Amino acid sequence: MSEAPQPTIAAEKQSSARVLPALILAMLSFSVVQTAVVPILPSLAKELNVSASSITWLMTANLLSAAVLTPLLGRFGDLRGRKPMLLISLAGLVAGSALAVSTHSFTWLVVARVLQGAGGGVLPLAISIVRDELPKQKVTGGVAAISASMGVGSGLGLVATGLLLEHWSYKSIFWMGLAFGLLAVLLVALRVPSDPVTDKDGGADPLGALTLAGWLSALLVAVSQGNHWGWTSTKTLGLFAVAAVVALIWGVIETKVAHPLVDMRMMSRPAVAFTNLAGLLIGFGMYGSFMVISNFAQTPEKLTHYGFTATVLHAGVMLLPSAIGSMVAAPLGAMLIARRGPRLPLVLGGVLGGVAMAYLALRHSSEGDIYTASAIFGLGIGLAFSAMPAYINGAVPVEQSGIANGMNAVLRTVGGAIGTAVMAAILTGDTMKLPPQIPLTLPTLDAYKHAFWAAAVVCAVAGAVPFLIRTVKPAATVAQGGAADQNAGPELVKTDA
């Protein structure tokens, strides 16, 4: 492994100004593309002449691709260089967007969404690059900004979708993804330097990669299609069983091979394992809540006596405060991590998410309630996202940073898939009786209340998880010789936690 030379003071500002905006844009590109299709799935089903259950494959395929490719790209980044893998990740996003723009076939659109899922590798790779390239005192802020950009992009994607559909067809959404992706590729190619840290002694683990892809695929397909197939159907239970068996085989393989894709000892450290659990729960809360709030806002008030009969654009605007909240959370989270460590922002993230959803369960009669809850929720999600990489980077060596953050991103994705499936099951499990001439199936108000409470509980549990992790102190407080190093920044030290 080769280590990076320490940047000179004169080069520090230039390095931060050049690298960080390119990485943030790359993260925004993926998160916008991933969520932009969510509010238009019903209209896409009509446009492409497919069933409501089939159209969900546009999300399932993307989640599955992102879950499988994120850790692989993260690990290859550790082995062979982060910048080349980041460009490959973005190239997949661009290729998928270009294919989506050019086709009218549902099958090819699913393929396009699979290609776009390669953009999931941006998060772990960008975090690793920040850790390599930025001066120590700016690492925490840079990582927080990139991680919180996931929540920012998700909120902006929902608004942009509505705005584009007001004037153009659904193709405009994929044109947006293509433009974002091309700009991100250009900036990364020009501004991100060659990698200073690579693990030359590491090796590939094809069997580990194959089995990881196998159990993730089985799990995500079962979760995503469970509502359509039935949770007790043979297909659903069979896939859950396959996921469990293959995951066990994968775990055994990873403990035996010389160069594992995922170091299970690293994954079992409390600072990593419990942070991944928090990531799963926060992913559940974010994706599930976005879906529920969007559906609630678009419910026709005259038929149900709740909701706001909002257009896709209006519903997206109601979620815009969540993006603003996540923007505010990035510098706030970095400041809290520098002063108190990552526990406080992760706890606050879960608590604020729970408060926002509990608020909606109790108050939901005015648009102001949605705006208020959305802002609080976005602030919480942003704080949680900024804290998780800080915990992980403090517990793993530099050469494992990509795969460690990649697995955390995978568990956020898995949590999101579980969250949307559970929320959909809650909403479809209690529907209203409407006149036969109205071809709609709408949830009752009680169903939405139960969904909000479920999200609140999950977020609250996520806020409690950090108390299971031993405190990790900022590097400035533990410099060699017992005295604080005045030049050390808030980057976390490696720990056995």
Structure description:
It is globular and about 70 Å long. It has helices spanning 9-36, 41-48, 52-55, 57-80, 82-102, 106-116, 122-133, 136-165, 171-191, 206-229, 234-256, 264-268, 270-298, 301-304, 312-340, 343-362, 367-393, 401-428, 445-464. Helix 4 (57-80) packs antiparallel against helix 18 (401-428) and helix 5 runs antiparallel to helix 7 (122-133). The protein is mainly alpha-helical and 497 residues long.
Strand and helix layout:
Elements lengths: L8 H28 L4 H8 L3 H4 L1 H24 L1 H21 L3 H11 L5 H12 L2 H30 L5 H21 L14 H24 L4 H23 L7 H5 L1 H29 L2 H4 L7 H29 L2 H20 L4 H27 L7 H28 L16 H20 L33
Mean pLDDT: 86
* SS summary, helix count: 19
* Largest sheet composition: none
Strand content: under 5%
How widely separated are the two ends? Answer: 24 Å
SS elements, strand count: 0
Secondary-structure element pattern, one letter each = HHHHHHHHHHHHHHHHHHH
The percent range for helix content is over 70%
Give the low-confidence spans: 1-11, 473-497
